Amino acid sequence: MKRLLLWEPEFLKDCTDLDRALHVLSEYVCRAGLGKEASRIENDLGSRCRAGDVMLSHGLVNPHAQSSNVLVSTMIYVKFAKPLRANAVYASTVESGFSRMLLTMLSTSPTQEEVREVCGWYRSMADDEILALLANGTQQEIRRLLLEEGE
C-alpha cells in the first residue's frame, strides 16, 4: 500500500470545502498513476462520505472508498493550510470545519498485505494517543506514524 504525506500542499491551497478537496485529490491520484478516471474516484469517495460518518476526531476526516478506478491502494494524509468546511450534503457526517484528512482508497482486488495494513491502521486509531497525533501532530510526528503504523 502506498502511503503519502501532503503537508499544506500548494495545489490544495484554494480548496475551501470537502467537495473541492475530493475533486482535486482525485485528480492528483490519477496524475500520480495511482488511479484512473478521477471523476469516478471522486464520486466513489463522495458517495461514501454521504453514506456514513467520516469524522475520526475534531478537525480530522477520513474519506475512504474501494473502487475499480483505484490502481494502487493508497493512504494519503493531508494537512490543509487553512480549515475547510463541509458542504451541506455532508452536514450529518462531517463537522463544520476540518484541517486534516486521512484519505484511504483500496482497489477492488486488494492484496492480503494491503487488507492487513488497512486493518492495522484502523485498529491503531482506536488508541487515543494515535488519534490525537493524527488530529494534531507535527509534520515529523505524522511522517513517523505513517512509516510505523499498520505494519
UniProtKB/TrEMBL annotation:
Keywords: Pyruvate, Transferase. InterPro entries: PTrfase/Anion_transptr (IPR016152). One of its GO terms (molecular function) is transferase activity. It comes from the Bacteria. The keyword Transferase applies. This is Putative phosphoenolpyruvate-dependent sugar phosphotransferase system, EIIA 2. It comes from Bifidobacterium bombi DSM 19703.
